[in-house]
Design brief:
The chain has about 325 residues and is of the alpha+beta class. It is about 45% helix and about 15% strand. The strands form three sheets. Strands 1-2-3-5-4 form a five-stranded antiparallel sheet, with helices on both faces. α9 crosses α13, α11 packs across α14 and α13 runs antiparallel to α14.
């Protein structure tokens, strides 16, 4: 996955506005006070529901995302969580405001401010990357201490971030790793076990930063798609993000990390622990069967896992 068309193929089919049930559309149009006259489906991201920039008959524009368990059984819960986060994000955060939400027990919808921005080009361009890293410094500053209560990353990712341990306990899974990872499984599991004390902190993190969750306007970087928001150390968001950049460009994650101001507060061992946990999580996920409606997710996770592992390997060799 390294081109804009590659990004588009991540989602085989997104719902259009017309494909939503009549009662869902009617509720939204009534709340918005005007009918939808144009639907421009967005290609970034993974969820197989609606993700569209909508034009209303009176000229206003909004962005809407909607899904039900029929598209993906886990998605409605995530969308509910995103509603909670978007309700409470302070205006200082460079994110779209939530205008309206809907939940009838089956269908869940968010209507947000439409961001007139461009998706980031992948492979990453150095100039855009530099803008994003500066934006992440400002984001970490502005979200410390966390302006809203949120779950700690330590609790949210406890299951995910013991993946080397899980792979080590399953010879079948372990046999599908590359040679270096197989030979270093014990060391990786040891490193991973230090992640929670390293990542704990009081910054509100997005925890799912990637090219498709960032939009560039003329003068800002807007961060979208916040269902995974948690609290943690101020440097964790960038550390979770950089493997996705390394997977889709020649940019050097270590150089970017050295240049990233919040990273200066992290001890090298702490960084290695969280990076090991991230690499293990992506690689473990990539070995599982593809979830319903998301056929390309596993390859994407594998690329990010391999990029995180290559970066860690350089740091600890
Ligand atoms: N408020 C918005 N305004 C304009 N475009 C948006 C907005 N929010 C998201 N997008 C675009 O829609 C895509 C999908 O939205 P996102 O919230 O990331 O959904 P998903 O959960 O499917 O990843 C994003 O990659 C982005 O390009
Ligand atoms: Mg997204």
């Amino acid at each position: 996955m390294n081109t804009a068309s590659g990004a588009a193929t991540l989602v085989p089919h997104r719902l259009s506005w017309q494909e939503l049930p009549e009662q869902v559309r009617a509720a939204a149009e009534s709340a918005l006070g005007a009918p939808v006259v144009r639907d421009v489906s967005q290609s970034g991201g993974f969820s197989p529901g609606l993700a569209s920039r909508l034009a209303l008959s009176d000229g206003r524009r909004v962005f809407a995302k909607a899904i039900s368990a029929d598209q993906n059984p886990r998605a409605p819960r995530l969308y509910r969580r995103e509603i909670e986060v978007m309700r409470s994000l302070p205006a200082s955060v460079p994110a779209p405001r939530l205008r309206w939400s809907y939940d009838d027990g089956k269908w869940v919808m968010l209507v947000l401010d439409d961001v007139d921005g461009a998706m980031l080009a992948t492979p990453w361009r150095p100039g855009q990357f530099a803008r994003v890293m500066s934006a992440l410094e400002r984001l970490a500053d502005g979200l410390t201490p966390a302006p809203v209560p949120a779950m700690s990353i330590v609790d949210d990712l406890a299951e995910n971030f013991r993946s080397w341990h899980a792979i080590g306990a399953d010879p079948q899974l372990a046999s599908r790793l590359d040679e270096w990872a197989r030979a270093n499984l014990t060391r990786l599991a040891e490193l991973e076990s230090g992640w929670a004390s390293a990542a704990r902190g009081d910054t509100l993190l997005h925890a799912d930063l990637r090219a498709d969750n960032l939009l560039l306007t003329d003068d800002t970087v807007i961060v979208v798609d916040w269902p995974y928001a948690v609290t943690g150390a101020p440097w964790v968001d960038a550390l979770l993000f950089l493997p996705s950049v390394a997977a889709t460009s020649d940019l050097d994650p270590e150089q970017a990390w050295q240049d990233f101001r919040p990273a200066h507060a992290a001890a090298s061992g702490q960084v290695n622990s969280v990076l090991a946990a991230v690499a293990g999580d992506f690689l473990y996920q990539s070995l599982l069967p593809a979830p319903a409606g998301l056929p390309t997710l596993r390859a994407h996770q594998r690329e990010k896992g391999m990029a995180a592992l290559a970066w860690l390997r350089r740091r600890i060799s």
